[in-house]
């Protein structure tokens, strides 16, 4: 299990993926790590001897390894996996248990959304919300937001309410597939200005991937208010770079 823990800094919310199949759990870690390379993600799949089923010991060990002080989100594939995870929580001390959340959401979509939210430094409620958004019907998914410092709310210069719009053509061969979509959303979440992409929230991974944008697609970026132009330009430049893909 230790070889599944990233060696990068662990001051992020951790994730545990509980599946009846060890291959599914390990594969999901591989997938999510493409978008969240420094998040502690542990697979807890299969029985103790890697047969189909779940393992209390694997779940408990995964939670312990994923916890770096900021909490752990646990996602499960089927109902009995949730029961196993709940049993594992019963044996944790109260302090640790208070920082572990089991989320009932689609395993793959929830894991990817949660991983990106954790990667940009989201706290436990933010990562939990991102995971739950994957199960919301007709939802574009919750936005992932980077932590922002407190600001002085006293009166200041008048706010700029003008709207900036720019259209870019995707040039990378596979369009906004998972890895570049995660890179795009991660940048959008740090800009401090709400931006839309073809009318969808630029800081929502599930919303962006749901657009199905392929090579040659026209992408309309739009933002309103202070910093709108800089935010749109930053995202446009990333799209125009092709994300480093041929």
From TrEMBL:
Query: MF terms per GO, please?
Result: kinase activity
Instruction: One Pfam family, please name it.
Output: PTS-HPr
The enzyme's first-digit EC class, named in words, is: transferase
Q: Looking at the record, which segments are called Disordered?
A: 131-162
Boundaries of each HPr domain copy?
163-246
CDD domains given for it? PTS-HPr_like
Domain PTS EIIA type-4 span(s) in chain numbering:
12-144
Give UniProt keywords alphabetically. Kinase, Transferase
Stretch forming the signal peptide = none
Q: What is its EC number?
A: 2.7.1.121
Reaction catalysed?
A: dihydroxyacetone + phosphoenolpyruvate = dihydroxyacetone phosphate + pyruvate
Tell me which SUPFAM superfamilies the record gives: HPr-like, PTS system fructose IIA component-like
Function statement: Component of the dihydroxyacetone kinase complex, which is responsible for the phosphoenolpyruvate (PEP)-dependent phosphorylation of dihydroxyacetone. DhaM serves as the phosphoryl donor. Is phosphorylated by phosphoenolpyruvate in an EI- and HPr-dependent reaction, and a phosphorelay system on histidine residues finally leads to phosphoryl transfer to DhaL and dihydroxyacetone. General (non sugar-specific) component of the phosphoenolpyruvate-dependent sugar phosphotransferase system (sugar PTS). This major carbohydrate active-transport system catalyzes the phosphorylation of incoming sugar substrates concomitantly with their translocation across the cell membrane. The phosphoryl group from phosphoenolpyruvate (PEP) is transferred to the phosphoryl carrier protein HPr by enzyme I. Phospho-HPr then transfers it to the PTS EIIA domain.
Partners and quaternary state? Homodimer. The dihydroxyacetone kinase complex is composed of a homodimer of DhaM, a homodimer of DhaK and the subunit DhaL.
Family annotation (NCBIfam families): dha_pts, PTS_HPr_family
Q: What is this protein called?
A: Phosphocarrier protein HPr
Q: Which species expresses this protein natively?
A: Cryobacterium breve
């Amino acid at each position: 299990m230790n070889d599944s823990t990233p060696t990068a800094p662990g001051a992020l919310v951790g994730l545990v993926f509980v599946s009846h199949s060890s291959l599914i759990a390990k594969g999901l870690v591989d997938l999510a790590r493409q978008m969240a390379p420094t998040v502690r993600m542990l697979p807890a799949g299969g029985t103790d001897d890697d047969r189909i089923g779940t393992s209390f010991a694997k779940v408990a060990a995964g939670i312990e390894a994923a916890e770096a002080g900021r909490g752990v989100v646990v996602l499960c594939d089927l109902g009995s996996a949730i029961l196993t995870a709940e049993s594992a929580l019963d044996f944790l001390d109260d302090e640790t248990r208070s920082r572990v959340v089991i989320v009932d959401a689609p395993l793959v979509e929830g894991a990817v959304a949660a991983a990106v939210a954790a990667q940009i430094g989201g706290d436990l409620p933010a990562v939990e919300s991102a995971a739950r958004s994957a199960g919301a019907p007709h939802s574009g998914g919750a936005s992932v937001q980077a932590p922002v410092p407190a600001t002085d709310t006293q009166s200041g210069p008048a706010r700029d309410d003008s709207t900036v719009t720019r259209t870019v053509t995707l040039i990378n061969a596979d369009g906004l597939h998972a890895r570049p979509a995660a890179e795009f959303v991660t940048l959008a979440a740090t800009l401090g200005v709400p931006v839309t992409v073809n009318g969808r929230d630029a800081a929502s991974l599930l919303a962006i991937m749901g657009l199905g944008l392929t090579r040659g697609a026209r992408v309309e970026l739009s933002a309103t208010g202070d910093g709108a132009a800089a935010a749109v330009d930053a995202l446009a430049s990333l799209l125009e770079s092709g994300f480093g893909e041929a």
